Amino acid sequence: MAGIHGGGRAYASAAPPRPVAAGRPDLRGYRNILYDPPLQDRFAATRSFEETQRLMAILAVLMSDSGDEVAPDRLNRGLPAGYTYLLQLVAHDCVQSPTPFWALPGAQAQARNGRIARLRLDTLYGGGPAACPFAYAPDDPRDTARTRLRLGPMRGKAGVGRADGAQRDIARAAVPFPAGSTPKPVKASSELKAEPPFGDPLIADPRNEDNALLAQMTALFHLLHNTIAETIGMPKVTGGVSTEAPADTERRFACARAATTMIYRHILRQDLLPRLLHPEVEKVYREGGAAALLDRDEAGSGAWRPDVATYERGRVSIPLEFSHGAARFAHAMVRPHYATGDGFPRQPFREALLKTSARQPAMMPLSAGWILRWANFFPIGTPALPAPALNFSRRIMPLYSGELRMETLFQPAVPGAPAGLAFQDLISAVVSGIWSVAPLIVAVRERIKRRGWKVDPFDTSPLTAEAAREAAIILWLRECGGAAVPAEDLAQIARDPPLPFYVQFEAMHDLGGERLGVLGSILMAEVLYGAMLDDRLPGERRDGTLRDGLARLATEMQLPGRFDGVPEIGDMAAMIEFIADRNGLREACPNFL
Amino acid sequence: MERQLQVIKFKEFGEMMKAWAAKPETFPRDLQAFKEAVEAKPGASPPRDAIAKVGSHVTKLTLVTHGMDELVIKLSPAEMITNSEKAITEHGGYPLAPFYAGIEAAGAQEGADHSAKMEFHAMRIADYTMGNCA
Question: What is the predicted ipTM?
Answer without folding.
Answer: 0.71
